[in-house]
């Protein structure tokens, strides 16, 4: 799933087969928030037995969609990488074109702000990307998106520590097509680092039931100071 090694028709058919099983799809969706989960928990989420889940997890591992971390006797699974998450998020776009109004009405919080793997997506993610591109705080180049020194200075003025913020200048991100907004948000290592910092600063907080992120009152004020506004 990279430009260096494009998919063959057989690989694409195999990926389609991996997604065609509802239990495997449930496992992948559960890991879209960037968490690492044990097999037993994923079996419960998928509604299958431990043995059946084990078979599904092996197929997803063999297919390159999951990675495995073993700690003693315990086995933990997560999405293989950000590319897999972006691909899964993009797979929802054709479906969203038909059902987005229904999805938005069902869970507006998920559409407002959520994680796309480990970076910010939804209306807030799109608003941040567009506002910072317009201000010149984000630059799109051949190696992806990068943060400008002016943006780093603004984040420090907003309360972030200077040293970690300066480290953001060495990271690169990429544009990621948002499946509910059908516009771009910031992904890749830079998007992940910014989102993590916003969570640590208390601008956002996680929702346990799904991938939704809730902006706090302080967070909304900070976002507005940085040119990022959400429609009421």
TrEMBL record:
Which superkingdom heads the taxonomic lineage of this protein's source?
Bacteria
**Cross-referenced Pfam families:** HTH_20
HTH arsR-type domain residues are: 4-99
Cross-referenced Gene3D superfamilies: Winged helix-like DNA-binding domain superfamily/Winged helix DNA-binding domain
> Which SMART domains does UniProt cross-reference here?
HTH_ARSR (SM00418)
The record's annotation in CDD domains points to: HTH_ARSR
Which InterPro entries does the UniProt record give?
ArsR-like_HTH, HTH_ArsR_DNA-bd_dom, HTH_Metal-responsive_Reg, WH-like_DNA-bd_sf, WH_DNA-bd_sf
Name recorded for this polypeptide: Helix-turn-helix transcriptional regulator
């Amino acid at each position: 799933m990279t430009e260096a090694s494009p998919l063959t028709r057989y690989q694409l058919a195999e990926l389609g087969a991996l997604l065609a099983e509802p239990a495997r799809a449930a496992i992948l969706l559960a890991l879209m928030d960037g968490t690492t989960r044990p097999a037993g928990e994923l079996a419960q989420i998928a509604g299958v037995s431990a043995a059946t889940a084990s078979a599904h997890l092996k197929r997803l591992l063999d297919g390159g969609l999951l990675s495995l971390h073993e700690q003693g006797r315990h086995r933990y699974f997560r999405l293989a990488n950000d590319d897999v998450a972006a691909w899964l998020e993009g797979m929802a776009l054709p479906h969203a074109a038909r059902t987005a109004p229904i999805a938005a009405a069902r869970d507006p919080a998920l559409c407002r702000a959520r994680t796309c793997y480990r970076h910010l997506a939804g209306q807030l993610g799109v608003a941040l990307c567009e506002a910072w591109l317009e201000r010149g705080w984000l630059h799109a180049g051949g190696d992806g998106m990068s943060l400008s020194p002016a943006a780093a200075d603004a984040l420090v003025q907003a309360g972030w520590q200077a040293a970690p913020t300066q480290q953001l200048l060495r990271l690169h991100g990429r544009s990621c097509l948002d499946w509910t907004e059908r516009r771009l948000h910031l992904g890749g290592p830079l998007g992940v680092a910014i989102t993590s910092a916003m969570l640590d600063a208390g601008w956002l907080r996680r929702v346990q039931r799904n991938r939704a992120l809730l902006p706090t009152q302080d967070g909304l004020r900070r976002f507005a100071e940085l040119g990022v506004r959400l429609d009421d």
